[in-house]
Each structure stands twice: as C-alpha cells, then as structure tokens.
Specification:
The protein is an alpha+beta fold. The chain contains 20 helices and twelve strands. It has helices at residues 8-17, 29-36, 44-52, 59-63, 78-105, 109-129, 135-160, 169-179, 198-202, 209-228, 271-277, 297-306, 309-316, 321-329, 339-354, 358-364, 369-382, 384-400, 421-457, 481-493, and strands spanning 3-5, 26-28, 132-133, 245-247, 257-259, 280-281, 287-294, 402-404, 410-412, 463-467, 471-477, 504-509. The strands form five sheets. A four-stranded antiparallel beta sheet has the order 10-11-7-12. A two-stranded parallel ribbon has the order 1-2. Helix 1 (8-17) links the parallel strand 1 and strand 2. The chain binds a DNA duplex through helix 8, helix 10, strand 5, helix 15 and helix 16.
Length: 516
DNA sequence: GAAGTCACG
DNA sequence: ACGTACGTGACTTCA
C-alpha cells in the first residue's frame, strides 16, 4: 500500500520512536515538487495555495504564535488536532494527482522513483543512527582555545590602544581604518561599511602586527563558538549521539544540506580545525570510522559530459589532473611543473566548474586580470571540448529555459535571456555549474541507495552515518571491515558509467580525522 | 531580520 | 562599461 505524505522522512522518524517501520512504496509531495522546480519553496501551505487555491488551517491558529507562549500539539483538544491532521493528509493526497503530471511532463519521474524516493529511507536511517562524539575531549579543547583567545585579545587591545568588541565588524573597521589608518582607501561592503573580511585583512597582514592577531583570533573564536562549545549541546540525551538532519529539498542543484547541527562543514583545513574533527568517534571500541570520498568527481563529470579528449585521457591514465593541466597551459613537461604552476592550474580547474571569469581567477591567484585572461584562453585551447560544451550548455538553457544533470534533474534559469548583463551572466554560470554539481549529487545518491540496500540485505552491524557531498562516513564493526570496504568501494565506483573511471579514496580510523 | 563573516564541498 | 567565481548553514552584531 503506497503511503502519500509531505515530508515523509519526518513521519518515518516519529513512527520509528514507536517501533513502527514504514515500508515502501512511498510518495512524498515535498520531494516531488523539489524535482518539478527546485528553486521554489516546498512547504505544504504555499503549495496548497498555489496549486489547490486553498489556504489550510494555520498551525498558529491551533497552538499560537511562535515564542515562549506557544503551546504544544499535546495541549490541543483531539478534535482540533484531528481536523488539522486530516486536512494535512488530504492536501498532500490532492497534490499528488497534480504532481504526477508535473513529474512526467518535466521528465523527472525516473529520478523521483529511482533516486529521491529511495533516498528518504536512507536518510531517515542515517539521521536516527547518529554519530558519537567525545564531549570530554571537546571540553578540554575549549579550555585550550580559551587561553589562546585571551592571549590574542590582550595583544590586539595593546596594539589598538583601546578595548572594543572584536566580534563587531563595525567597531573593528573603525579601529583599523579610522584610528590606525592602515590604508588610504579601505574596501567597503555593499552597505558602505568598512569590509574586514578575511580576504581584505590577509592583504593587509604586512601593514600592521595587529592584523595577524586579529585573523588568528577570528578563526579560533569561530571554531570555539560554532563547534567546540556547540556540538556537545547537540548530543541527544536518549542516544548519546548527534543526530543531524539531512535536507533533501533545499539546494538548487540536487545536493543535500545538513542542519541542527550542520555536519557537512566540520573543520579540516587548519591545524586547530583538525583537532575538532578528532572529536568524531566510533560508537564503541568494537567499531572504527571509515571515510570514502570520490576523487575529483566534478572534474570527472565535466570531462565525461563534455567529451573533451584531453581531459578524458588524463583521467583514464590516472594522471594528476592539476599537474597535467599545468603542463599543458604552461607548456612544460609534467615533471617540471612547479608548485605554483600546479596551484594556479588547480584554481583554473575549479574555476571552470564555477564558470570562470578573468576577474574571478585573478582574485583567487596572484595573477593579474590580463594574465588570468591569457590563462583561460590557453586552457580552452588545450581542452577545446570544454569550451564547446560550455557554450552549448548556455545555448541549451537559452532555448529550453533549463539545464539538466546526467540523470535528468533540472534547474530552471529564469534570467538566462535577461537584458540585465549581471543577471544574465549569473544564469550562464549556473547553466555550467548546475549540471556538474548536480550530476555529482546524483552519483553519490545512487551509491548511497545501493550501499544502504546491501547493508540491509546482509544485516550488517556497520552503518552509514554521514554524507558530505563527495564523501560518505561509516561506523564499521571490526568483524566487517573488509566486507564493508569492498561493498562501499565497488558500489561508489560503479554507481554510474561515465567516459572516465570513478575513483574513491577510503580509510579507517579511530576518529574522523584519522579516517581521512 | 538583515548584514557580515566564515566553516565545509 | 560593469560587477563576478558554484552550492550550503551557523554565529554575532545591530537597527
């Protein structure tokens, strides 16, 4: 019997608490509408108004306005709740009839049936599983960070000659640019305030000692507030684990997002950041964490869909793509590519995925704008297939009004024919980026569904816990290490057939940092 | 609630 | 000539 609902993942998780396992087939109208138009809002009230011309009973009329006086559903007479809940079910059922048509006419029925609907149970299971963290360790880290922050704060106030609120960009801007007059023409934000962003401050690092201290204080303060102090508060009393929520209908490209807390932006790039990653641990001593991430998935996707022979060749030969790119654009032997050349090539490769501009590239490198332009021209001469592909994407978007991923997921581009040049070029960058980012999302979702199925089929103790766009994190029982490794590696690498191989890196560890 | 900033892919 | 990298979520300040 098919279960129709709006945001079924929520219902599934509630019912799970009462030991009720909701079995497929499922039909989720929130997910359906996300595929029909990912850019729009997908809440039931809005959809009901725009598709059914009906304004539902508001939740606020039942339990009151948001705030501390808001009642709970428990406090409401059963008759009222019944009325509200049945309307909810009815609306979702009515929307189904409409979205059935929409899914078909938009060509997204298959991705709905084969990817997004199966993902609901995969994500429900990941969320209810949760991940273990070492709160004691984080509390120790808090003390360590606190000491360092105090030292830095004293230095900063000494150097600025007065105390102020370091968290206030406004006050900081006044100190740096009015009082200390670090530059004659400070960069402003769009509201006219002095910009004190990391990007601006880094460029001033040699102008005054205070800058280094501020940058260090900023990054440490961020880590302390967002992770070290917050994560322990997110641990569930019932399970002793952190249960993030994976949003399936938020991004415009098909990626997931994660919140409450966000576990897709746990630090890794800095030394201090890595200390935080160490706090993510297996559930007990019989388990280890295992992380498996796709290597260069977005570049492999663009190589394959653009059919560019040079880029395909590099991936088939399993060469370092950034080194190969540097070798081509600087016209030197791969062995003679310098660190700087490889670094620049890497930036261009990323730029390609985002829809490069000479300006953007010059911002990200130490190249001038004209050097950047030469670099890009040179790039396209060496990867001519990419240039052709990119213009064909833009043409396609202009004609059809949307672009699509390898699995047919669409993104509509309202501004692709706009008279406003800025809006138009923004849409053009989306026309290039969305199919790449979105295809990578399709691929990892397919892998997740198959891995989840296989784990269930074999009744494994090991569990999939997290997805971070191109990475999956597992809690693996010691007795299943080899088996799980094989299932995950094979499934991820064979999720789809491209013109280039898909490769993954996979490691075990006693924490998330070690598994990376 | 918007703006600014910064953590991640 | 003009403003620009793609996609997110969380925290703090300030009007």
């Amino acid at each position: 019997m098919i279960k129709v609902g709006h945001n079924l993942k929520f219902d599934i998780k509630v019912l799970y608490k009462y030991d009720i396992d909701v079995v497929e087939p499922l039909y989720d109208t929130m997910v359906a509408h996300y595929l029909i138009n990912p850019d729009m809002r997908h809440n039931l009230d809005t959809l009901s108004e725009s598709y059914l011309n009906y304004t539902p009973i508001s939740i606020e009329s039942l339990i009151g306005k948001k705030g501390k006086n808001q009642k709970s559903m428990r406090d409401i007479p059963i008759e009222e709740v019944t009325n509200y809940a049945s309307e909810d079910a009815d609306l979702s059922f009515q929307l189904k009839q409409i979205f059935d048509e929409g899914l078909k006419s938009n060509g997204v029925k298959q991705i709905f049936d084969d990817i997004e609907i199966p993902m609901i149970k995969v994500l429900s299971d990941m969320e209810k599983e949760g991940i273990n963290i070492d709160s004691k360790y984080l509390n120790k880290l808090d003390i360590e960070f606190e000491k360092e922050l105090n030292t830095l704060k004293k230095e900063i106030f000494n150097q600025s000659g007065e105390e102020f609120n370091l968290n206030s960009p406004k006050q900081l801007g006044n100190i740096l640019f009015d009082k200390l007059k670090l530059v004659s023409k400070p960069k402003k934000t769009k509201t006219g305030q002095y910009s004190t962003s990391e990007e601006v401050l880094s460029n001033l690092a040699n102008n005054h000692e205070i800058i280094r201290s501020i940058l260090e204080w900023r990054s440490l303060d961020k880590l302390q507030n967002t992770y070290v102090r917050s994560l322990p508060n997110e641990v569930s009393d019932k399970t002793n684990k952190i249960h993030t929520r994976f949003n399936q209908t938020v991004t415009t490209t098909g990626r997931l997002s994660s919140n409450n807390p966000n576990l897709q932006n746990i630090p890794i790039r800095t030394k201090n950041g890595q200390k935080i990653r160490k706090a993510f641990i297996p559930r007990n001593s019989k388990f280890e964490l295992m992380a498996a991430d796709y290597s260069q998935i977005e570049l492999r996707v663009i190589a394959s869909i653009s059919k560019d022979e040079n880029m395909i060749d590099a991936f088939i030969k399993n060469q370092d793509i950034h080194t190969m790119t540097a070798s081509k654009i600087y016209n030197v032997d791969p062995d003679e590519v310098t660190r700087e050349q490889r670094g620049n090539a890497k930036t261009v490769n990323f730029g390609i995925i985002y829809g490069v501009s000479a300006f953007g590239l010059s911002q990200q490198t130490n190249l001038t704008r004209s050097e950047s332009k030469l670099m890009i021209d040179n790039y396209f001469e060496n990867y001519p297939g990419l240039k052709t592909y990119m213009s064909s994407q833009i043409d396609y978007a202009r004609n059809k009004g949307y672009v699509e991923t390898i699995m047919g997921r669409r993104r509509y581009l309202q501004n692709i024919n706009s008279q406003n040049g800025m809006l138009r070029s923004g849409a053009e960058r989306n026309a290039i980026n969305a199919p790449i980012q979105g295809s990578a999302a399709d691929i990892i979702k397919i892998a997740m569904i198959r891995i989840h199925n296989e784990f269930q089929k074999q009744s494994l103790k090991s569990k999939m816990l997290l997805q971070v766009h191109d990475e999956l994190v597992f809690d693996v029982h010691n007795s299943e290490k080899e088996l799980v490794k094989k299932i995950v590696k094979t499934t991820m690498e064979s999720a789809v057939k491209l013109d280039v191989p898909l490769r993954i890196d996979l490691e075990f560890g006693k924490n998330w940092l070690e598994a990376h």
